[in-house]
């Protein structure tokens, strides 16, 4: 939770942002005193019969009325059981059973969670790790590195190894990257990477999950569930890609393009179900329509509302968990719409269309890819586009979003030295947003838009970025294969009908300024912005010389206060603390220096004479351009180039299947 950037412009998503949310009263929930059996949704599921011959195992940690979860299958699966012990508040108890391996056995906790490219320290929450064999004999556990626990199986008997441990569950708010449980408030959440140890070398093995809960608690997990109440996952990857929401929450269900969706709303639960259904169904049918089908059989939106002030979401293959800082007053909530569209799009772009390294995962260390800008920035682009195509927002709103992004990029000096690919690789050093000031969300979205417009222009609107992403989906997503770094350029070439590598090279692998004019004008957009100059330096008044010095601050000498490392002042060797004597030969006070620095033209020579430690230095450079007063409009039809109307129409046209077209909120119908 370390993105402290101010409110972004609507796109974003994966890294949650922390907003200064006002403190809110806590809902009081009645304490629960009994533990029941396996639960899904509301109803308790009867315990499974031990019919298939497996041993009865899996004692649930204590509590009145405890029942036993039974896994009766002599399987090679690794079986996880989660339970809550009311005597150990703020903890989950995890029980794991797996076949006894022939060789060594090491369990580990991930160093990160997919979708958030930061090293996390889940190991700090893992406690009381103990192992035994099938006969109950304790096995030695060696914990000689922070994230691993080695089990001595040399003396083990029977066919299984049993592992038990506790997970501290006190994540902020309603949980997000970690786990939380609050028995009294009747709520809990598990982000799998924070709670489920994996057997090293066994992450491809199938997995089962049993959740035992206090009575009256609900459970929502986006995994297939057997009649016995046991959830099944194909692998550890799928297990921890399936968030577990527990306790009291509201549920809203709907269908889009024949696919069932469920929304879970926890926290400050206030939403008008009908509006929520309509807006999410409109978004879902657009995104499903774009790809011609969904990569999931069902999908779960989990909303954590009004807790801890987070805004953002974390994508999963068939679900997402989204934090919103305000109660969902209605389904037109901007954050809800944009973040939901973004996270759902990830079910294709990054989960199914994934760059090498992002599945199967190495959970032990940072995984680097040059393609996060495509995974995140292009997802931001499609999130905004989707809401327009769905009729929820207008093309002018879209233009305003893009203008804000251009303004943000223009105000990012790092754009001249950090490429999108570098920002992607170094996300781990850049708060999962970019690197050294360059956001791959912002520039990635803009480059996605530029590619889309240029493809439309060069092919007479026959092809677009839609074709590129569908191509990647068909070639790699459908084959469940990660795409290599060159795949995007090849897909663009197939869509364009000719090699477009230089275009991608300029904007993703180099730091060229984006040439907006032609691309925007050909599509009927017009960008205006004012160009000024800057050297990237601020000044402050020299302190009073003595008590009798009553000069106004503006009349005192100018002292260099801050130097931007990416702008000319740094290259000129101006340093904080320098006393400015003249600028371009003119003696300056602090007030005058400030005024000159604010009104510099772009790309002109500048000379600054300073005094530093008693020496006089003459420093020279060239001002850099900076832009202000951004505006992006869609030209009226009469002012557009001939092809622009067609491009605009096609850009914003609905992709939803025809049978979904009646969903209110689409195609301009009021929500
Ligand atoms: Zn994202």
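^ structure tokens above, recovered residues below v
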């Amino acid at each position: 939770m370390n993105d402290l950037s101010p409110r972004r412009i609507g796109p974003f998503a994966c890294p949650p942002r922390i907003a200064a949310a006002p403190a809110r009263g806590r809902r009081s929930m009645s304490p629960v005193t009994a533990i029941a059996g396996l639960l899904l949704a509301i109803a308790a599921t009867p315990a499974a019969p031990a019919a298939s011959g497996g041993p009865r195992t899996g004692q649930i940690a204590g509590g009145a009325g405890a029942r036993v979860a039974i896994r009766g299958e002599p399987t090679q699966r690794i079986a996880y059981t989660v339970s809550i012990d009311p005597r150990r508040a703020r903890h989950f108890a995890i029980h794991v059973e797996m076949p006894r391996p022939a060789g060594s056995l090491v369990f580990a906790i991930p160093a990160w969670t997919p979708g958030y490219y930061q090293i996390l320290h889940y190991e700090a929450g893992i406690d009381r790790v103990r192992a035994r064999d099938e006969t109950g004999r304790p096995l030695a556990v060696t914990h000689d590195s922070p994230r691993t626990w080695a089990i001595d199986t040399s003396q083990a008997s029977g066919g299984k190894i049993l592992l038990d441990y506790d997970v501290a569950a006190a994540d902020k708010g309603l949980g997000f990257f970690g786990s939380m449980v609050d028995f009294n408030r009747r709520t809990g959440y598990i982000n799998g990477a924070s709670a489920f140890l994996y057997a090293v070398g066994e992450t491809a093995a199938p997995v089962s999950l049993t959740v035992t809960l206090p009575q009256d608690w609900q459970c929502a997990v986006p995994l297939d569930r057997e009649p016995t109440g046991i959830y099944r996952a194909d692998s550890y990857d799928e297990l921890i890609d399936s968030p577990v929401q527990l306790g009291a929450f509201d549920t809203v269900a709907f269908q889009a393009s024949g696919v069932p969706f469920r929304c879970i709303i926890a926290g400050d639960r206030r939403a008008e179900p009908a509006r929520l259904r309509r807006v999410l169904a409109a978004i879902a049918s657009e995104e499903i329509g774009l790809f011609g089908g969904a990569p999931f059989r069902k999908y779960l939106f989990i909303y954590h509302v009004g807790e801890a002030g987070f805004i953002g979401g974390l994508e999963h293959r068939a679900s997402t968990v989204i934090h919103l800082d305000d109660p969902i007053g209605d389904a037109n909530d901007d954050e809800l719409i944009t973040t939901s569209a973004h996270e759902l799009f990830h079910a294709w772009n990054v989960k199914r269309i994934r760059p090498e390294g992002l599945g199967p995962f190495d959970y032990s260390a940072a995984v680097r890819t040059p393609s996060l800008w495509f995974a995140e920035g292009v997802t931001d682009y499609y999130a905004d586009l989707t809401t327009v195509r769905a009729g929820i927002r207008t093309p002018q709103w879209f233009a305003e979003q893009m203008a804000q992004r251009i303004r943000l990029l223009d105000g990012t000096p790092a754009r001249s030295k950090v490429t999108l690919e570098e920002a992607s690789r170094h996300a781990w050093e850049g708060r999962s947003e970019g690197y050294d000031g360059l956001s791959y969300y912002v520039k990635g979205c803009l480059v996605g838009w530029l590619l889309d417009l240029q493809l439309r222009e060069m092919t007479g609107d026959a092809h677009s970025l839609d074709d590129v992403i569908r191509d990647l989906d068909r070639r790699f997503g459908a084959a469940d294969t990660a795409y290599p770094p060159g795949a995007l350029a090849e897909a663009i070439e197939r869509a364009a009908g000719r090699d477009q590598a230089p275009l991608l090279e300029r904007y993703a692998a180099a730091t060229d300024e984006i040439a907006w004019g032609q691309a925007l004008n050909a599509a009927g957009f017009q960008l205006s912005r004012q160009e000024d100059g800057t050297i990237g330096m601020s000044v402050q008044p020299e302190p009073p010389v003595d008590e009798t010095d009553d000069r106004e601050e503006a009349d005192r000498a100018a002292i260099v206060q801050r130097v931007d490392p990416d702008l000319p002042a740094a290259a000129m060797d101006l340093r904080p603390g320098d006393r400015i004597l003249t600028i371009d030969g003119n003696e300056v006070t602090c007030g005058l220096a400030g005024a000159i620095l604010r009104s510099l033209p772009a790309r002109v020579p500048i000379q600054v004479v300073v005094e530093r430690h008693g020496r006089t230095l003459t420093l020279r450079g060239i001002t850099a351009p900076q832009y202000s007063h951004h505006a992006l409009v869609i030209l009226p039809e009469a002012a557009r180039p001939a092809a622009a109307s067609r491009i605009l129409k096609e850009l914003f046209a609905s992709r939803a299947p025809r049978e979904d077209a009646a969903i209110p909120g689409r195609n301009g119908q009021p929500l």
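The two ends are 34 Å apart (CA to CA).
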